[in-house]
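Please predict the structure of the following assembly.
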Amino acid sequence: MSQFIVRSGPFTHAPTSVRATMGLVLVALLPATAFNLWLFGWPALFMFLATLIFCLLAEAGCLILAKKPLMPSLGDGSVALTGWLLAMSLPPWAPWWICLLGAIFAVVLAKHLFGGLGQNVFNPAMVGRVALLVSFPLQMTAFVSARPLGSAAAPGFGQSLGMIFGHTPWPDQVSAASALGYVKTELSRGVPVTQSMHHLPDLMDMALGLHPGSFGETSALLLLLGGLLLLARRVITWHIPTAVMGSLFVLATLFHAVDPGRYAGGLFHLLSGATFLGAFFIATDYVTSPVTKKGQLVYGCGVGGLTWLIRTFAGYPEGMAFAVLLMNALTPIIDHHFRPRAFGRTPQGDPLPLKDRT
Amino acid sequence: MKLFPVRGGVHPDYRKERTAEAAIVALPLPKALYLPLQQHIGAPAEAVVEAGQRVLKGQLLALAGGPVSAPVHAPTSGLVAAIATMTAPHPSGLAQPTIILEPDGREEWAALPPPIPDPFAADPAVIRARVADCGIVGMGGATFPSAVKLALGTEHKLDILLLNGAECEPYLTCDDRLMRERAEAVLDGARIMAHALGAARVVVAIEANKPQALEIMARAAAALADVTVVKVPAQYPMGSERHLVQAITGRETPARKLTADLGVVVHNVATAQAVREAVRFGRPLLSRVVTVSGGAVAHPANVEAPLGALVSDLVDFCGGLTTPPRQVVNGGPMMGQPLPSLAVPVVKGMSGILALTAAETNEQPSEPCIRCGTCVTICPCGLVPVEMAAFIRKEDIDGAARLGVQDCVSCGSCSYICPAHIPLVHFFNYAKGRLAEKAREARRTDRVRQLVEVHNTRLDKLAAARAAQAAAVEAARAEAAKATGATGQGGAS
């Protein structure tokens, strides 16, 4: 009877799979995505779908070139998640070619050139976003004010198709600056933060998401809802989100206390830009973040700190994507230096001393 | 009693309900018993009977083959049909010397050693000798000769005998049933062992998923001042020796040390019962309780089987297989060994026979690692499985060793939880095998070098002696020549 194949146990397995994990993250992204589709209307839907489809096509193309089977790679949800997150980090009305280039940067350059799923050093969606941002700063900062579906100001279906895939011009007076961008511009004109704050949506609207920004980042509350789902289902743990938001909040609050005219407050930093999206969905990307809890805390603090640094002192108003990529580069080093203590050993790896029991 | 937290672990689907309520039933005597000479860790036993010889129940068939070894006894009376090589219940499927016994059905007992009248007044050495003579080994699956482990008290000051009734492996209920049905016997055996060890207290650790066993054991222990029954959380691998000691005492066993260095020795509940039989009645280890379970078994049960009964006998007794199993396992599904076939005998360390369906094994093709880090979070040994596997995949065994692959207890938690279904433990067992091989190779090289050195020294000495002798001869000859020369000269002149 040699029908039993010999391999090491265990001969049972938890009902876990890559597909299930990725699927849960996609579900967690749904509330914020649905809200922002409503907020930014048809053009946003087309932009979102275009990005997703381009990413799937890029993945398929890479797999064919590498002579790998299309399944299960295409169906495991990883590329869908990359596309989804990329779309969420693009301006809501970005034209199709931005979506296409983003997909190529993210999937071909950041993922497959490094060896595919699990091998990439940098977060693919953030590589896509940053490559676009430095190449096409104009298109990548063309934010729009809210034009909810069903409202009179919302562009129609046909018009929206033309805006994303053709040359239909945008409706008038739609362009708007993101809160971070506005504060930065005003500051560069000599207007102190304390003053420019008055022209921004109030914190409640910021939390709800009723403010201009990238497609998926505006609703802190709904992103938090998704993040809590991920925490509850143990897809992620508290370490990275808490470290990212905690370090950002603490730094911003401290400096704000010192000079409120120069530095925006902690709450403002938390509720604007990609803080929630980044803390719960981007910095927590498995492949590019450390595997140990201690390492994740260090990494999260790095992301939060760098985000604040870039937002406050660099030329770009938003720094989450840069911060994530910079910390991605440090992940192997963090993993090397922050290993858990092995059972029966000191943190240095020597056997624990035997205590005298007499 | 205050418990201490243990790092990591998983909560597998326990699936114990299939046999938890099934009382222990005795297997009818099979047509033949197959008794391998190695059912334990250490040197194989040496047969002292011959083919054709009639033996009685409890008679010695094979003598312990060294200080770390265990004898084998006849589980029933009958005829030794042959001593042949036969497939052992080991994943390799290799054959090993096996005594084949044909029962005569008369169950005629041999003269047994007399009971030790008052074990608690007996010299620990007497109890150890009895346990050794009765062929008792660790019955939780480790199969280390129990007498050797009972001798730990001679070199260590021990406070606690920790009786392991955690039974953290899914499916298995043999220890659960034993505790429920023979609580007094188990506790008596445990107290005898504690006496032999010189440990003042017995702590019985039982996982929370066995409420009846907890209750019955606590009731049985109520009158015993030196015994405490403790409920430990159902958290795999709670039954791992070092982790259980940590949960109960808070003491963390240093790497490369024994729990005895911390004053604790761990024994399994089934071993305790066997020790009682040996000490109180002089009966050697002849049978054990085996949980026969898994989705492919018609009527899962807890079977008390004579050692040497074929696994197929037990499976047939349980109504046979309803579907072809995906995997047949010796032991629990987490740390058990794959069985090469059903035509292998029950041995002393076999706690379970599981015929698992594909749905139960949930084996999936491996996908790329997504570095989710779950294996790091749940590793009860504080290792980084994801990184060790990456090294081993590149055949960098030394790299994996630097990360502590040898500290891995192969509990299987990481493989169990991995969403990419990467067989991590398979990697680690491979690496441990390679490292052991390298260590053996190094020892051999060392030995050869030593021999060569000794050989060279001897040759040098020989050469030196020869040279000295030659010099002496030369000198003598020169002396003689001088003498003769002198005379010659004298003669010539």
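The first strand of chain B starts at residue 25 and ends at 26. Residues 364-493 of chain B form a domain with the Fumarate Reductase Iron-sulfur Protein; Chain B, domain 2 fold (CATH 1.10.1060).
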